[in-house]
Write a structure and sequence with these properties.
CATH class of the domain at 83-132 and 205-236: Alpha Beta
Structural class: alpha+beta
CATH topology of the domain at 83-132 and 205-236: Alpha-Beta Plaits
Order of helices and strands: HHHHEEHEEHEEHEHE
Helix content: 40-55%
Length: 249
């Protein structure tokens, strides 16, 4: 199986242990609220994006009250008008960094992301400059139960578009091409299987291996970006070894 699946495993471990839980909940609250507004419904049964957002929020143990507040905010119509922004650049030692944002103030976000790169020996590039480094993939995390026939299940999921599998730490990680994401998500629903997490990820097709000192310098940039309230996801191609740290959630 592809080594790419290890990134999802590391991300999930970080999600379970991350001390910045408030930041994580804020990210999912924003996604739920936007899903309600754009989908025109607070009912997850009739709003696929909302259904997935709630599912992912539950996967990081977000309290039910937080989820309900985010839904009500979207229904109330007083939610800020968010726009999606992406930034591509390089951190120290040539590590590729891709940043996804959801913001209600474009100028603020551009200034803050640019400052994070410049103050941490990084540089922003043009959109599309990292296309050759990251592949956009659908990634699903499914808890494995004792009664599962994994071999049979994988065959069913291949019919839905799955092209890679990895089983580790009680989870089956399933990957697919970008264009098969919707079909595979529906396949899980048809099989009455509830994934813990389902999202589009940017998977690096090559990685950078650094010394511990170099690693910490790159992570300073990553942490600065993560701490920004407008940042939803940070992806990079930094090779993460045992004891060095965890992949950016």
């Amino acid at each position: 199986m592809s080594g790419h699946s290890k990134w999802s495993t590391i991300k999930r471990k970080k999600g379970a242990a991350d001390a910045k839980r408030g930041k994580i909940f804020s990210r999912f609250s924003k996604e739920i609220t936007v899903a309600v507004k754009e989908g025109g419904s607070g009912d997850p049964e009739g709003n696929p994006r909302l259904r997935m957002a709630i599912q992912n929020a539950k996967g990081v143990n977000m309290p039910k009250d937080n989820i309900e507040r985010a839904i009500k905010k979207g229904i109330g119509g007083d939610v800020n008008s968010y726009m999606e922004l992406t930034f591509e650049g390089y951190g120290p030692f040539g590590v590729a960094v891709y940043v996804e944002c959801l913001t209600d103030n474009q100028n603020r976000t551009v200034q803050e992301v640019r400052a994070a790169f410049s103050k941490n020996d990084g540089s922003l590039g043009t959109n599309g400059s990292l296309e050759f480094i990251f592949d956009r993939k659908g990634v699903f995390s499914l808890p494995v139960t004792d009664d599962m026939d994994i071999e049979s299940l994988e065959l069913d999921l291949i019919d839905g578009g799955a092209d890679d599998f990895s089983e580790e730490d009680g989870y089956l990680t399933v990957m697919c091409a970008l264009e098969d994401f919707g079909n595979l998500n529906k396949k899980f629903e048809d099989l009455n299987l509830e994934t813990e997490n389902a999202e589009l990820q940017r998977i690096p097709n090559n990685t950078k291996s650094l010394t511990d000192e170099e690693f910490q310098k790159v992570m300073k940039l990553i942490d600065t970006l993560e701490d920004n309230d407008d940042v939803q996801q940070v992806w990079h191609n930094l090779e993460v070894g045992d004891g060095q740290g965890l992949f950016v959630y």
